[in-house]
Amino acid sequence: MPSPKRSHEPAESVGDRIRRLRRAKGLTQADLAQKVGISRRAAVYYEAEGGSPSADLLARYAQALGVSTDVLAGLKAPPRAVPTEQPESLRLWRRLKRIEALPVHDRKAILKMIDAMTERVGRRKAG
């Protein structure tokens, strides 16, 4: 009787899941630390060292990442809606998030410039 196949890959840790979900949301470690209410150094520790966050901290991470604590604990798979973004898309997403924090008149000026440039490129492709 053949023996069952064993995976040689280690199981994903809580820190691995936090890192994967954080990146999928386009957040930096500092962004997530701020949302969770901890220092960046603590956030780095939980991602890299795989420390075991308390139940309260796990709940705050889950809320900041938009998933359940069961997902972070590895008891459930994350929802399919969590995208796996490419690095370039993540950089663009972070920049767009910074634009959201600008005053309204500055945001409008940037959006007008983006619209003008994309319309110009669209005309070139059509013409």
Describe the protein.
This protein has 127 residues and is an all-alpha fold. The protein folds into 2 domains: 11-84, 434 Repressor (Amino-terminal Domain) (Orthogonal Bundle); 85-127. The protein is 64% helix and 0% strand. It has helices spanning 14-24, 29-36, 40-48, 55-65, 69-73, 87-100, 104-126. α2 (29-36) packs across α3 (40-48). The longest helix has 23 residues, at 104-126. The radius of gyration is 20 Å and the shape is elongated. The relative contact order is 0.11.
List keywords for this structure.
about 130 residues, mainly alpha, 434 Repressor (Amino-terminal Domain), 2 domains, about 65% helix, about 0% strand, disordered N terminus
Biggest sheet statistics? none
Question: What is the average of the pLDDT values?
Answer: 80
Identify low-pLDDT runs. Answer: 1-9
Task: Classify the fold: give the CATH topology of the largest domain.
Answer: 434 Repressor (Amino-terminal Domain)
- Helical fraction: 55-70%
